[in-house]
Design a protein that fits this description.
Blueprint lengths: L4 E5 L3 H13 L3 E5 L2 H11 L3 E5 L7 H9 L6 E5 L4 H9 L4 E4 L4 H19 L4 E4 L2 E4 L4 E4 L2 E2 L4 H12 L5 E2 H9 L7 H15 L9 E4 L3 E4 L7
The structure holds calcium ion.
Keywords: Cytoplasm, DNA-binding, Phosphoprotein, Transcription, Transcription regulation, Two-component regulatory system
Protein name: Response regulator
Subcellular location: Cytoplasm
Amino acid sequence: MNQPLILIIEDEESLRRFLVPTLISQHYQVLCAATATEGLALARSHNPDLVLLDLGLPDRDGMTVLKELRTWSRKPVLILSARNQERDKVRALDQGADDYLAKPFGAGELLARIRVALRHTHLLDVPEPVLEGGALRIDLAGREVSREGRAIKLTALEYRLLEALARRNGKVATHRQLLADVWGPGGEGNTHYLRIYMAMLRKKLEADPTRPRHFITEPNVGYRLNLEAPRD
Ligand code: CA
């Protein structure tokens, strides 16, 4: 089987010098572009399995690259964002990017995000009915949740929030996406609902709710459900 092809669209040469060998060491195939124009041309000619996209590119905004990609491709796009691009990053996620990496990031974090994003591609074809990790078991088909083998009772809203996170299977979900999924159009802007219900989920499903392992806060962005083994 062919190894997944990853397209890097990033103008910072030092970052490309870190990304390319890191990805090749994991047997990914790699293509590089330093501008938006070059990146879009390579995306069209090679149809990569995943795109690493910098938002601050010299010729055009990374956001326009994302928009154009999304007109013809559903392949995962991971945003590479600098610290001062907080708002752009959230906008990119709401516009169809799959996840993000905040610079600077390490090799472990990069590879974990890529694994999750590529796994998700396959899940679109065959939805996983049961998700398991740590002591948690989430049966989306049977609508049952258990921790350490014991069934946990969730309210309807708690379950909908858990399901909205679980459907993204390790990828970040923005506040706006979660509010729309759980509360519908009326929920927009009510980020405090999320804080309240996330606290309830953590209380019921985390071993130590004050140090959550599964229900991860992504500051100013949203939340992610992490069912992978903890990394050190
Ligand atoms: Ca840049």
